[in-house]
Amino acid sequence: MKRVLVVAGVWPWPPDQGDRVRLAGILGVLTRRAAVTLAAPPGPEPAPVPLEVVALPVRRRPLMALLHAGCPAAVGLRWDPALTRQVAALAGAADAVWVYGLGATAWLPPKPVQVPAVVDLVDALDRYYLGRWRHTGSPLWAWEAWKTRRWQARLARRWMLNVVSPADRAVLPGWARVWVTGNGCGAAGPPGSRNPEPGRAVTVGHWRYPPNAGGLRWFLRAVWPRVRRRVPGAVLDVVGKGAPGWAAGPGVRVRGWVPDLAAVYAAARVAVAPVLEGSGVKNKVLEALCHGVPVVTTPVGAEGLPSGPGLWVREGTEAWEEAVATALTTPELPVPVPPPSWEAALAPLVEALLGAAGEG
Question: Where in the chain is the domain with CATH 3.40.50.2000?
Fold first, then answer.
């Protein structure tokens, strides 16, 4: 069995936000195929899959960020020569290496390792920073986008990369070796397990993430009052970490963190994902589709996902009002096509990495 080293800047359990969800999915697939060592900062929950853990003593180091001001902040704050040496030693004992997230690239050895390796950027974060710049007008976001794009190009000269959507691939250098491997879907309830309540909608997210909070503000201000005039008994559940108290109002229940989302999705007629900015594949959309819930979202929210029944992509207040009101009042909606499993979504990259390491 091949030995795979996974280097990450986050601990994936509990998988309660996007970067942790993907990392947990990757580890679930890899541990069925290889002996995995996870080098990451320790977390609050034990690993539910069989792997060896090497705890990285990660600290944010503002002085290092100043010394490496030309790097993205996510990299400069984690710059640590001791961790770089530790990762290099671990890579020397592995048959393949998977580096997860932009922050973890702070610990990459100066020269590429002598085994097959991939740097999974997940998203091309310069796109996110440019979106923040457009929404806030702050030149600091534009500066961060420029630094990140330079850093991504530097990585591309030395490493094979992965991103989750074609739009992310498009901003990376054309000559770079880049895989596009999206996110998968975890296990949902059995067919027929849903019992949606009339007029029930849900929106799920990590609400301390500015694009999520901004999209929710727009939806509650511009769309939801119009929907309520057409569907007076409609109720929106706001679910997720950091759910904001300001969202509470007529027909809005702020529920916060819910350990098991299956019951929430089973009761919802429609999920709304008012994503106005960002990059990459949106796990909140995948998750709802996985549970058989139709989703109304924006073109940004549908990025990297195939069109199909149950995925309603809309722009503008009137189009959103019509889609949400229709979903809440139509007795039988098309059943969404479920996204691929994590195994299927990651198969091309996993096969390539392990194949290059000599599997089979």
Answer: 3-184+341-356, 200-329
